[in-house]
UniProtKB/TrEMBL annotation:
Annotated region described as Disordered, given as residue ranges: 1-20
Localisation per UniProt entry: Membrane
Keyword Plastid belongs to the record: no
Protein name listed in UniProt: Neutral zinc metallopeptidase
Length: 284
């Protein structure tokens, strides 16, 4: 991907030089989860929760152990900031073209080891994720090395771009209300039925990742799409289950098979039409 010398996002917070991922919130992740759930299911209480969280924020303490980032780490930070800037520009354009309102830009946090979020505490083992409670994408970039060495992905810079675009896709789902509707539909469902809804949500985020790539084609280089598809294949539920436990249990899928993930990414990439991303109509 052609990225050097281009605009970088101002919405990236780099905590990689901080031990434990930067700031630690008094009370830990359990309290954050409670706050998040209260705001989700009782929106009328949101102002009171916000007041409490702001008060708690004053109790944050900064980790004192810091280290200088290596030149390679600094370069990677510049790369992901450029990709994130591209998502800002493109999703602003897509929202405008489709009369979806104003695109609210998310933020991205780069961390090492562990991090505290509005959705609770998380470790690098969680992989990259989006937290709807604070509208932030969280990434430990060491994940991509494991994706290659442990799960057989091809690697390359566009594999990272694909994952960023996928997580931003979850932000888009939050803004459009899709994520909230899915959580409501999952209530009272069996585990297998709830998992199917989760799969559709994840496949739609893959579609949105492909849609972003469609709009970003002027910066793509030969082999970029193959890198994205290799990453999508590696993180398919069937590929991971086969690698980790030696057998596949489709009812337990939460993200979709390798074939599904590649299919929906390519549908977004080839079509460039957000209206064709109804994974719920096609996959349920």
């Amino acid at each position: 991907m052609q990225w050097r010398g281009r605009r970088q996002s101002d919405n990236v917070e780099d905590r990689r030089g901080m031990s434990g991922g930067g700031k630690v919130i008094a009370g830990g992740g359990a309290i954050a989860i409670v706050f998040f759930l209260v705001k989700m299911f009782f929106p009328e209480a949101a102002p009171f929760v916000d007041t409490i969280q702001q008060s708690q924020g004053a109790q944050q303490t900064e980790q004192v152990e810091q280290r200088e980032l290596t030149p390679q780490e600094k370069e990677m930070g510049e790369f992901v900031s450029t990709v994130f800037a591209d998502t800002e520009d493109i999703w602003t354009k897509i929202f405008e073209e489709n009369n979806l309102g104003t695109y609210e830009q998310p933020k991205m946090v780069l961390f090492t080891g562990s991090v505290e979020t509005a959705c609770g505490g998380a470790s690098s083992a969680s992989g990259p994720f989006y937290c709807p409670g604070d509208h932030k994408v969280y990434m430990d970039l060491a994940f991509f090395e494991e994706l290659k060495t442990r799960f057989g992905a091809k690697g390359g810079d566009f594999a990272i771009a694909y994952v960023i675009a996928h997580e931003v896709g979850h932000h888009v789902q939050t803004l459009l209300g899709t994520s909230g509707k899915v959580r409501q539909l999952q209530q009272g469902k069996s585990e297998a039925e709830a998992n199917k809804l989760s799969v559709c949500l994840e496949l739609q985020a893959d579609f949105y990742g492909g849609l972003w790539a469609h709009y970003n084609q002027k910066y793509l280089e030969e082999g970029d799409i193959e890198e994205a598809l290799s990453a999508a294949h590696a993180v398919g539920d069937d590929a991971i289950q086969s690698k980790m436990q030696g057998h596949v249990v489709p009812d337990s899928f939460t993200h979709g098979s390798s074939e599904q993930r590649m299919k929906w990414f390519m549908k977004g990439f080839k079509s460039g039409d957000i209206r064709l991303g109804d994974t719920f109509a096609e996959e349920l």
